[in-house]
Amino acid sequence: MVAEGIRFGYLFRSAESLATREYGKLLEPLGITPNQSEVLLVLGEHAPLSLKGLGESLICEEKSPSRLVQALIKKGLVKKEISSKDKRSSRLSLTAAGADLLPKIAEQEAIFGKYLAQQVPNLEAFSQILEEFLVDSFYEDKLKRRSLWRQEEK
Q1: Are 39 and 75 in contact (CB under 8 A)?
Q2: What pLDDT, in 10s, does the model give residues 101-146?
Q3: How far separated are the first and last CA of the chain, in Å rounded?
Q4: Rounded distance, CA 145 to CA 10, Å?
Q5: HTH marR-type domain location, by residue (predicted)?
Q6: Spatial distance between the Cα atoms of 46 and 140, rounded to a whole number of angstroms
Q7: CA distance 128 to 118
Q8: pLDDT of residue 154
Q9: Which of 26, 112, 132, 145 is the most exposed place for a label (fewest CB within 10 A)?
Q10: Cα dihedral across residues 95, 56, 69, 100: positive or negative
Q11: Cα(144)–Cα(70) distance, integer angstroms
Q12: Environment class of residue 39 by beta-carbon count within 10 Å: exposed (0-12), middle (13-18) or buried (19+)?
């Protein structure tokens, strides 16, 4: 018999993989992946950002998001500009094409949110349980930075 915690871990990872795949299907016509959409959304809200600053807000990437950013630069959706104050520093922002994608991403994100709400009974209660699990983690800070944390401050 598998311990319940181990079972939960595998169920959770499987659910995350399935959800990511479903969201990816919605984004396919836009030519971007779920992780790339997150970069665009964060830059759309907080740009200009340094690579480090971007990484501090992304949920999809624990380490440096440089590969994601490079792919988006190649697609013409993100631009990287060297700081005029410090030549060692650069700032990331959206190109016009990247900014044009934001409403389309938001539309697909809304469709995906409705899909999850239909698939997961008691989604709000499940979200609260996940927040409790994430308390005092670096994910809590990232979620709060992006106003995705609902739990009231203690």
Answers
A1: no
A2: 999 999 999 999 999 999 998 998 989 999 999 999 989 999 998 8
A3: 38
A4: 28
A5: 1-135
A6: 18
A7: 17
A8: 47
A9: 132
A10: negative
A11: 26
A12: buried
Angstrom distances, CA of residue 103 to CA of 34, 85, 108, 125 = 15, 33, 9, 29
pLDDT at 151 over 70: no
Instruction: Compute the average pLDDT of residues 79-106.
Output: 91
Q: Which amino acid is at 20?
A: T
Which region holds residue 136: left if phi is over 0, alpha if psi is between -120 and 50, else beta?
Answer: left
Tokens at 92, concatenated: 């990331």
- What length is written for the chain? 154
| C-alpha pair distances (Å), 43 with each of 4, 28, 67, 124, 150 | 39, 20, 15, 27, 22
Residue type (1 letter), 42: V
Determine the 3-state secondary structure of 150 from DSSP. Answer: coil
Half-sphere exposure of 95 (CA within 13 A, CB side): 11
Which residue segments constitute the domains of the chain, with CATH numbers given?
Answer: 4-145 (1.10.10.10)
Provide the token pair at 18: 């399935």
Q: Quickly state the pLDDT bin for 2 (edges 50, 70, 90).
A: confident
